[in-house]
Amino acid sequence: MAVSSWGVNDPIARKTWATKLFVDITANTFWGKFVGKTSSSMIQWKDETSKGKGDRVTVGLRTLLTGNGTQGDDTLEGNEEALTTYTMNLVIDQLRHAVRSGGKMSEQRVPFDVRDECRGALQDWWTERLDTSMANQLAGNTGQSDTRFTGNQATTAPSSANSVTRIIVGGDHAGEASLSATTTHIIGFRELDKCVALAKVQSPRIRPIRVDGSEYYVSFLHPYQIYQMRRNDTGNAGFYDVYKAAMQGGKISDNPIIQGANFIYNNVIVHEWAYIPTTVNAPVSQASYRRGVFCGAQAAVFATGMDGSPTKMDWVEEYFDYENQLGVAAGMIFGIKKSIFNSNDYATIALAGYAPAPTGTV
After folding, report:
1. Structure pTM?
2. Whole-number Å distance between alpha carbons of 286 and 310
């Protein structure tokens, strides 16, 4: 009887497993649903490159025209406006990881397919690493200097060039160093209101993201930030005031506020994200302070290389010790970077505040 099988490192198997791994990873990352290939996406995916290790991707930005135009029969020739453009360089580099079985006897003792479990383990590792890298980039976590955890390039602190504010600190303070262990320094609804106001008037403006015909911003806060907001916020609107208003308006079953700590406020979609880092400049007990982020369109760029290959990832299987041990490696050439043009964060505002862990016995 004829059977079909694909052995270790068979070209078809390599392509199949690598493709499946990449699809599963991007689907399971928290930010995968915000990725798109247009400038209207929160995270723009650039995959038109076939660069090698250590190369760069250039991302361009065209600013809004500012000229007055001409009226009636006034001469237009000679009064044209030049386009103003900025560029951002994004490093793409290779990152790899591998797992290795203990040997055929070890595999004999377990009731699962080792090859499949290797893929599952690498999928979990890559998902967590990409989530960590994106969170560090968006929040501008300069406290993490290992670029293996920041999308293959250094992070950049929230900008303050040209009188453009790209960080908001709880308690109306000017900087993270002024934070203290008090609930008046949490991130609350008034900070979200401030983000929306700044997004609409600062230059460059932070463009919202279109969702089902409506325009929204997106904010990512650590679970401890959400916890403090639920318990302590007394700003322009308390957490449960928002909840009651939604119920009185008849929006119950489809209101995101019912789904745990995720909600919509002032056209800001707020998500919990456990990968949000601690602040960099907190005066003491840094673990009690978190730096969330408010985002608009094109907040970050995710670039992948290896475009000339069948998949974005590389999958390699290899036997060791006279074919007794199976090793599996998965690698990808990619880069993640917060969008920065003309020395300003283009579509992010950091949200730094007091966010200690809940106390008491669970």
Report:
1. 0.85
2. 44
Calculate the alpha carbon distances from 2 to 8, 9, 10, 11, 16 in Å: 19, 21, 18, 20, 22
**How far, in Å, are 30, 47, 49, 193, 313 from residue 308 at the CA level?**
27, 10, 8, 45, 11
Report the alpha-carbon distance of residue 300 to residue 156 in Å, rounded.
12
Pick from 130, 146, 127, 148: nearest CA to 138: 130
Q: What is the 3-state secondary structure (H, E, C) of 290-354?
A: EEEEEECCCCEEEEECCCCCCCCEEEEEEEECCCCEEEEEEEEEEEEEECEECCEECCEEEEEEE
What single letter denotes the amino acid at residue 231? R
pLDDT tens track for 106-159: 555 444 466 777 888 899 999 999 999 999 999 999 999 999 999 999 999 998
* Percent helix, percent strand, percent coil in the chain, to nearest 5: 30, 25, 45
Rounded distance, CA 167 to CA 157, Å? 9
> Mean pLDDT over residues 191-215, rounded?
88
Compute the distance between CA of residue 177 and CA of residue 286 in angstroms, rounded to an integer.
10
Q: Which of 305, 311, 299, 308 is nearest to 337 (CA)?
A: 299
CA distances 33 to 21, 29, 145, Å, are 17, 8, 27
Which string of b and e fits 262-293 if b means at least 16 CB within 10 Å?
ebbbbebbbbbbebbbbbbbbeeeeebbbbbb
From residue 122, alpha-carbon distances to 201, 248, 322 in Å are: 44, 47, 24
Angle at 116 between CA 115 and CA 119, to 5 degrees: 95
**Tokens, residue 282:** 């907190």
For the chain, the structural domain boundaries read 11-39+47-63+82-149+308-336, 161-298+343-354
Which residues make beta-bridge pairs with 110?
Answer: none
Rounded-to-integer distance, Cα 207 and Cα 201, Å: 11
Report how far residue 208's alpha carbon sits from residue 340's, in angstroms, rounded to the nearest whole number. Answer: 17
Token digits of residue 18 = 């690598």
